[in-house]
């Protein structure tokens, strides 16, 4: 009986940890592009574009 309660408690804790992650749906289609001259030298400009397009995008973190 004690082992059954331990297993049941472990399953309960595991389900409370995994349930919120399964409810969040992250649907976004990221695109990235880099444009620069074919030869880059010091002082040249490089344009980097990163776009995330989707519904209900909660947040974006870039490092």
Shape: rod-shaped
SSE ordering: HEE
Task: Give the N-terminus to C-terminus distance in angstroms.
Answer: 50 Å
Profile the largest sheet: 2 strands, antiparallel
Radius of gyration, rounded? Answer: 23 Å
What percent strand?
A: 25-35%
Q: Write down the oligomeric state.
A: single chain
Q: Estimate percent helicity.
A: 25-40%
Helical/strand content category: alpha+beta
Average pLDDT taken over every residue: 72
Task: Please list the strands of the largest sheet in the order they lie side by side.
Answer: 1-2
- Counting DSSP E segments of at least 2 residues, the number of strands comes to 2
What's the total helix number? 1
Secondary-structure topology with pairs:
Layout: H1 2-23, E1 27-35, E2 47-55
Antiparallel strand pairs: 1-2
Quick overview of this protein structure:
With 63 residues, this protein is α+β, with helices and mostly antiparallel strands.
List keywords for this structure.
alpha+beta; 2 strands
Task: Explain this structure.
By secondary structure, this protein is an alpha+beta fold. It has a domain at 25-63. Helix content is 35%, strand content 29%. It contains 1 helix and 2 strands. Strands 1-2 form a two-stranded antiparallel ribbon. The protein is rod-shaped.
